[in-house]
Amino acid sequence: MGAIDAWAQITTPRMAERPWLATLLRWTGQTERAVVPDVESTIAAMDKADVDIMLLSAWHGPEGSLISNEEVAETVSKAPDRFKGLATVDLNDPVQAVRDIRRWVDGTRFVGVRIVPWLWDLPPNDRRYYPIYVACVEAGVPFCTQIGHTGPLCRSEPGRLIPYLDDVLLDFPELKIVGGHVGFPWIDEVVSLCHKYPNFFIDTSAYAVHRLPKDFVEFMKGAGQSRILFGTNWPMLSPRRALEKLDQLGLSAEGRELFLSGNARRVFGLTS
After folding, report:
1. pLDDT in tens, 36-92
2. Exposure b/e, 169-188, CB count within 10 A at least 16 = b
3. What CA–CA distance (Å, rounded) separates 37 from 179?
């Protein structure tokens, strides 16, 4: 059984033009313009690393749609056995946000909701998120966010876990929350919240596994074995590059299976 990539996107030209991508492109050694992959090249990249399923994110920010739910749905329809969607919403229109979640998130085509706090400069305990959390609980799907510092040229403060995500986890014990991008430099807060809340999970997107922080890997091999999901942030990081030194982590057979696919199947309700 192949891996599940918990954070990916098929970038649109309008997203590729955003100026805040400049530092991210520099870090990843890409060209001056972000890569805009297609379905075929994405599936080819998945196959090179034995990735069965990618969860493709829609993106929406204050300036409007960057990758729409409609565009993600169209991509998923082209390869429904390889792609699932993570819907997004407009934080400034909470009523329509709830309607959009009810429209798109069916647990089959779309299996969760993702909002990136730095894009809005709003931490996840802001009141505008709360109707969205309720809608996710009602739909029985996870809410996915980004934790830790921000690679693009935007403030990192919304990615702090304590107090922002701590508040949300206290208020919504029924809501599964997946924090993407590991949470560096606040790894102690990541581990603390995982110990405190059984509904909090982490994905390793944006990190090749050999670059994961040492304390994070130790947690991953021990008490955090059931909490860590594999992710890439495709197309910024390819699955093959992300996993090429996986053996160096020293995961047990069970831990490896949970990391690559088992935890994601459980958290997102993926039955096949």
Report:
1. 899 999 999 999 999 999 999 999 999 999 999 999 999 999 999 999 999 999 999
2. beebeebbbbbbbbbbebbe
3. 25
Structure-token match 């890569």, residue found:
35
CA nearest to 164, candidates 151, 179, 176, 174: 179
Closest CA to 101 of 73, 69, 66: 69
CA angle 94, 100, 103 (to 5 degrees): 150
CATH number of this structure's domain 3-268: 3.20.20.140
Please tell me the distance from the alpha carbon of residue 30 to that of residue 52, in angstroms, as a whole number: 25
Token pair 């107090």 in the structure block, residue: 163
Q: Which residue has the tokens 């990136």?
A: 116
Q: How far, in Å, CA of 163 to CA of 197, rounded?
A: 14
Judged by phi (left if over 0) then psi (alpha if -120 to 50, else beta), residue 24 lies in alpha
Predicted model pTM: 0.95
Residue-wise pLDDT tens digits, 178-200: 999 999 999 999 999 999 999 99
Measured CA distances, 186 to 36, 37, 160, 182 (Å): 31, 32, 7, 9
